[in-house]
Amino acid sequence: MPRARPHVTLGVSGGIASYKSCILARRLTEQGAAVDVVLTRAAGEFVRPVLFEGLTGRPALGSLWERTPALAHLDLAKQSDLVIVAPATAHLLARAAMGLADDLLTTILVARTGPVLAAPAMNDAMYAHPATQANVTTLSARGWTFVGPERGALAEGPSELPGRMSEPDTILAAALHLVAAPGPLKGKRVLITAGPTREHLDPVRVITNPSSGRMGFALAEAAHARGADVTLVTGPTELALPAGVRAQRVETTAEMERAVHTASADADVIIMAAAPADFRPTIQSPSKRPRSNGHMHVDFESTTDILSTLPRVSSSRVVVGFALETGGDGVARAQEKLNSKALDLVILNDALEPGAGFEVTTNRVTIVRKRGAPVALPLASKRDVAERILDEVESVLS
């Protein structure tokens, strides 16, 4: 968000998906935004204005004539950091594309020169109609940004075609990205790896580790919120992919290596937060080995150290490695890793420390830097740790 208390105008048009707008209004408020909700007449038939007032702490607006200052449309159009329309029905999109200004919301949209984010929501056939598609094209050409629609359940039943409004957290992520404050990461291409990899013994047995991917996912979400163009390469994980982030799922270390090399070609920042398997079986059995065969002997070979194979194509590229240790002088080993692999930062943590490492939502890390003394951070949520790591990345970029 661009300042301590940003201003967002949330326009709600008349559709069943307007219940999601209540959640979005609350999420925006929790992010510290001052949210002015503007409802069309039809939206007021689905959700009462008093509900939005309770969620945002600010009066919801509707009519040009009631409880509205004479120049409210100009004030909201000019002073808002972002105008969001969610849901954006087919009728709303048509009125906006035509430049109609027959209620408070469309008047704001006609007077608006800053960013507009729209989340379409309608029947799938209505979204596919040539008129709707032409309206979306027209508004996109005028600078509107669209999020969704998605495939899934509609009011009339399931659908395999787009029409369903995106979820509130997806819209929130797009909003944060659009109005991210100017900073070193805004507009930068950031590649992040996350999660474990799996190396197969046979078709049903694997060698892996307990990495959940939470640290890498938190970094991807935080970088996207700072305005970065984020690519996430992730191993197997149960986590939902971060909204607004390009993601590629891989399984083996070799697959991760190929994906990273492809995605890193134009990356300004690379953060290797994944925990790829260090070893793989020398021979993978093509079929499941029965337990009745008794003792199994497996020979292992090292996998590729992905980080060491990345070319430093630009002296301005920032590369961050992770070092997971289990005690001892971890800082010295992290410093050695930083120097031997020509890294800008190494994020050190202890796999055995309670509340840090694998399969937990918190972490305690030490940031080892090329310049300056290591910085030991207190135990915190992985999202808070991600923000602190990105602060260090921005310091290097500056």
Give an account of the 3D structure:
- The chain has 14 helices and 19 strands.
- The longest helix has 16 residues, at 382-397.
- It has helices at 18-30, 43-46, 49-56, 72-79, 90-98, 104-111, 124-128, 130-141, 168-178, 214-225, 253-263, 306-309, 330-340, 382-397, and strands at 7-12, 34-39, 82-88, 116-120, 145-146, 189-194, 199-202, 205-207, 229-234, 246-249, 269-272, 279-281, 300-302, 318-325, 345-350, 362-363, 366-369, 375-376, 380-381.
- Helix 1 links the parallel strand 1 (7-12) and strand 2 (34-39).
- Helix 1 runs parallel beside helix 3 and helix 4 crosses helix 6.
- The chain is of the alpha/beta class and 398 residues long.
- Helix content is 33%, strand content 21%.
- It is elongated, with a radius of gyration of 25 Å.
- It has two domains: 7-178, Rossmann fold, CATH 3.40.50.1950; 189-397, 3-Layer(aba) Sandwich (Rossmann fold).
- The strands form five sheets. An eight-stranded mixed β-sheet has the order 10-9-6-11-14-15-17-18, sandwiched between helices.
Layout of helices and strands, plus pairs?
Blueprint (H helix, E strand, L loop, with lengths): L6 E6 L5 H13 L3 E6 L3 H4 L2 H8 L15 H8 L2 E7 L1 H9 L5 H8 L4 E5 L3 H5 L1 H12 L3 E2 L21 H11 L10 E6 L4 E4 L2 E3 L6 H12 L3 E6 L11 E4 L3 H11 L5 E4 L6 E3 L18 E3 L3 H4 L8 E8 L4 H11 L4 E6 L11 E2 L2 E4 L5 E2 L3 E2 H16 L1
Parallel strand pairs: 1-2, 1-3, 3-4, 4-5, 6-9, 6-11, 9-10, 11-14, 14-15
Antiparallel strand pairs: 7-8, 12-13, 15-17, 16-19, 17-18
Helix pairs in contact: 1-3, 1-9, 4-6, 5-8, 10-14
